[in-house]
Amino acid sequence: MAEANWYVVHTYSGYENKVKANIEKTIENRHLEDEIIEVRVPMQDVIEVKNGARKTVQKKMFPGYVLVNMIMNDDTWYVVRNTRGVTGFVGPGSKPVPLSEAEMKPLGIKTENITIDFAEGDAIAVVAGVWKDTVGVVQRIDFGKQTATINVELFGRETPVEISFAEVRKMH
Questions:
Q1: HEC assignment per residue over the chain
Q2: Shared-domain flag, residues 150 and 101
């Protein structure tokens, strides 16, 4: 079986979320879950100051673009290319070019699979990063982002915090 890669799809500006929803609907209708794995609109937190008030809002990292993790073949190419709002794949001529490892790192997309020895409900210790020496119970695991969400006590309240797999170890 061919390997899935991340491709960049160009869309009409402002249609990124519609394109994502349309591709996901087509995947479901045509049962292409094994060929088109994930569709993503990369977002980033931006602090806006309006009338003296600071507010964190999510903005699209690349307006007009959607990332698709898929196995490139005639069917998947056709489905994505003919989705309403898509103007084409990014690449020279008509040949889509997958993103390289270096291009994917800043997007928070990791390709190397990390195996973990803990599951939801397990107690883990944070061994690196901002939350070093914190202990928490795993609430959620996200293999796509390779993070575990734990609750930590912050200002007397339980607060969920997302921590990279590389920064934690299981408590014994």
A1: CCCCEEEEEEECCCCHHHHHHHHHHHHHHHCCCCCEEEEECCEEEEEEEECCEEEEEEEECCCCEEEEEECCCHHHHHHHHCCCCEEEECCCCCCCCCCCHHHHHHHCCCCCCCCCCCCCCCEEEECCCCCCCCEEEEEEEECCCCEEEEEEEECCEEEEEEEEHHHEEECC
A2: no
Model confidence pLDDT, tens digit, residues 40-95: 998 888 888 888 888 888 888 889 999 999 999 989 999 999 999 999 998 887 67
Length in residues, the chain: 172
Gap between the Cα atoms of 99 and 150, Å rounded: 31
Are residue 42 and residue 67 in the same domain, yes or no? Answer: yes
- C-alpha 148/C-alpha 142 separation (Å) is 6
The whole-angstrom separation of Cα 74 and Cα 82 is: 12
Residues 20 and 96 in one domain: yes
Tokens of 71: 């196995």
Range of the domain at 83: 5-107
Displacement of CA 93 from its chain's centroid (Å):
27
